[in-house]
Design a protein that fits this description.
The protein has 16 helices and twelve strands. It is α+β, with helices and mostly antiparallel strands.
């Protein structure tokens, strides 16, 4: 379970300290026409990776950042601790309570949001240019000196458990959650503990565990900060330096071995009574990280099969045969480690078997005969167009820059991406399908009121 929480990051040590003087470089331009890298300024300050990108937008500044403190860092300890830690970061600091912080943000219309995922704790903030110093100061305060009180900790535990219990009523969550345990072995970062394990972990969690986790994992090491918008770059660097001077600690990312075959059943039912639909997930681990050479070829192929209304799955299983509420294929969970490939669909219980059969027919045709050159060209155009549209806002651009760094690229990759996708050939796309997928070995998970199923006995 990758639970949304509240975390924090952004940092740079003092520009006033000799050892923390920024070493600035202009990123090398990429080969694309957008020239993003040529305008980005990447600065190394006290071990932090800071990327600033001024845009034509007036008055607005967007900040996105991350550091390695996600769920995977629980290791063999309490699996709820990373999320509980992040949930406490905006619940007051040693200097002021959460109400005072909220009032300061609301008075200027600024926002600071924190989340935690598999490997990264992330921050997303937005404010007016004139309020940058305030927002950076609050982020630093929440990150470095959270109050971590027993009262807020007890509240966070209840919220954590309540949120999980609500998710347990969602067939999509139950199917995809079980799928991770089917395809990823125990110990792989993408293997989710079971919902029961999470509840038990939250109930047994201790405040001292949160304090220890925060001390060990929150720090400048491997922290990336992206700032986009109407920027006064020297001012931002100065404010970050003042706010984060003397901050230490942090850890490196987890780089696991590729997932091995698990001993899980190939077909699993998660029975949920009185549901009007069944979510079906079928697939396997892909063996690929996003940065691997064949990834984009398999991504194009996957999009042809099941991305949006123009994908084969929607065109046939839904629009032509009327068997599903929605269906898609995707690659996922491959930013930091090898990920997975899956088809996900929602059927009414009465139509589930027909829907699965129709889905498998489309899968078999796609796998055995491949895709056409016309399909490849249309899908490449779609992917490149969507990518460029995503860069049109400060949020989208900042997020894309941070994702590029997460995937092991320089920001110049944003300029290079359209050319790399457009250079793909039909042979490469079809070759990737056969090279990485084995439909005969797919895991199939059904969650909902599965016909003929029954609730698990306790």
């Amino acid at each position: 379970m990758k639970t949304v929480s509240r975390l924090c990051l952004l940092a740079v040590c003092s520009a006033a300290i000799l050892s923390a003087q920024p070493q600035t470089q202009n990123l090398k331009p990429g080969t694309g026409a957008s020239g993003i890298a040529a305008r980005a300024i990447r600065t190394k300050i006290a071990g932090l990776d800071v990327i600033a990108y001024p845009t034509g937008v007036k008055e607005v500044v967007t900040i996105k950042a991350s550091l390695p403190a996600g769920d995977a860092f629980a290791g063999e300890g309490n699996v709820a601790i990373p999320t509980l830690t992040s949930m406490l970061l905006d619940q007051g600091t040693t200097k002021q309570d959460k109400f005072a912080i909220a009032e300061k943000l609301e008075s200027v219309g600024a926002t600071i949001d924190f989340t935690v995922g598999t490997q990264m704790a992330e921050i997303s903030a937005k404010c007016l240019k004139k309020d940058v110093a305030l927002v950076i100061g609050l982020i630093a305060e929440q990150l470095r000196t959270p109050a971590l009180t027993a009262e807020e900790f007890d509240k966070a535990k209840k919220q954590f458990i309540g949120g999980l219990q609500r998710q347990l009523e969602d067939t999509n969550f139950r199917a995809t959650d079980a799928f991770t345990r089917a395809v990823y072995p125990l110990g792989h970062p993408n293997h989710n503990p079971s919902p029961a394990e999470y509840v038990a972990a939250a109930e047994s969690a201790k405040l001292e565990d949160v304090v220890a986790f925060h001390k060990k994992y929150y720090g400048p090491a491997h922290c990336t900060v992206v700032v986009v918008g109407d920027l006064d770059i020297p001012q931002i660097q100065s404010e970050l330096g003042k706010a984060f001077a003397g901050w230490t600690g942090g850890v490196a990312l987890i780089r696991p071995a590729k997932a091995t075959t698990t001993d899980a059943s190939r077909d699993q039912n998660v029975f949920m009574p009185e549901k009007t639909s069944v979510t079906v997930v079928m697939g396997q681990t892909s063996g690929l990280r996003y940065s691997d050479p064949d990834y984009q070829a398999l991504r194009v192929a996957t999009a042809i099969l099941g991305s949006g209304f123009t994908g084969r799955l929607m065109a046939n299983v839904r629009d032509k045969e009327g068997l599903t509420y929605g269906i898609s294929s995707s690659l996922a969970h491959d930013t930091f480690s090898d990920g997975d490939w899956k088809i996900q669909a929602t059927f009414s219980p009465a139509l589930m078997e027909k829907g699965i059969a129709s889905t498998k027919r489309q899968l078999t045709s796609w796998y055995e005969t491949g895709v056409t050159s016309d399909e490849v060209e249309r899908r490449k155009s779609n992917l490149v167009g969507s990518f460029k549209v995503g860069l049109a806002t400060t949020d989208g651009l900042a997020g894309a820059m941070l994702s590029a760094v997460h995937r092991g690229y320089d920001v110049s990759w944003l300029d290079e991406y359209p050319g790399k996708v457009n250079a793909l050939t039909t042979d490469q796309v079809n070759g990737a399908i056969k090279k990485y997928l084995k439909p005969e070995n797919f895991y199939v998970v059904k969650a909902g009121t599965v016909p003929g199923g029954a609730p698990a006995t306790k």
